[in-house]
Amino acid sequence: MATNHKLTATSRKIEGKGASRRLRTAGYVPAIVYGAGAEPQAIQILHNDILLGSRFESFYSSVIDLTVDGKAQKVLIKDWQKHPFKQLMLHMDFQRVNENEAVRVAVPVHFLNQEKSPAGKTAGLVISHNLTEVTVSCLPKDLPEFIELDLANLKAGDIVHLSDLKLPKGVEVPELGLGKEHDVAVVTVASIQEEVDPTAEGAAGDASGEEKK
Which residues contact 192 (CB under 8 A, 6 or more apart)? Predict the structure, then answer.
């Protein structure tokens, strides 16, 4: 069942670094809402509400019900700035969405049954997740929280491409329409190559030569 994310905000009239700093000190996140043919609007949201939402993986890739000064609208998180090391959101950008127009959103990929696969049970193999999220295009109502990739049959030498993903109805990967060269690998399986230290090899050869003398 999809998670229904909701946020409540109020508009703000004073902008600038000083005003944003004061908002953060007061426990708010300065943000802006734009798009859908309407004027950009500066808003403020309680930081704790953002923290609660961010506990869910889908928070950053789902359509959110944002209420500003009592008026509801549907938005996507398009950008955010976090503190380098503190659990602190510094700024957010929200884009309004039209429910009748397709949106492009990067959604996470969930890898299933890797440990149960032949590749997962074979020593000496490295399974690489080359992509952990995929940009999809669809109507807001069809936006998935994530894409599942079943790796139960994964074996040595396998490569899983974008075109191998099973997408929900109404969802597509725009990149695949750009040509075969854009059908990149999502998962690859390779053998571990043991690296030989040439210095050690040389030393072993010298020692062997000395013994023969």
Answer: 124, 125, 126
- First-residue to last-residue Cα distance in the chain: 77
Determine contact, residues 62/78, Cβ cutoff 8 Å. no
Structure tokens at 204: 């072993």
pLDDT digit string (tens) for 91-127? 999 999 999 999 999 999 999 999 999 999 999 999 9
- Alpha-carbon gap, residue 1 to 9, rounded angstroms: 26
Give this prediction's pTM. Answer: 0.80
Q: Are 94 and 31 in contact (CB under 8 A)?
A: yes
Instruction: Assess contact for 176 and 100: CB atoms under 8 A.
Output: no
Q: What is the 3-state secondary structure (H, E, C) of the chain?
A: CCCCEEEEEEECCCCCHHHHHHHHHCCEEEEEEEECCEEEEEEEEEHHHHHHHCCCHHHHHCCEEEEECCEEEEEEEEEEEECCCCCCEEEEEEEECCCCCCEEEEEEEEEECCCCCCCCCCCCEEEEECCCEEEEEECHHHCCCCEEEECCCCCCCCEEEHHHCCCCCCCECHHHHHCHHHCCEEEEEEECCCCCCHHHHHHHHHHHHHHHC
8 A C-beta contact, residue 47 and residue 87: no
CA distance 38 to 207: 79
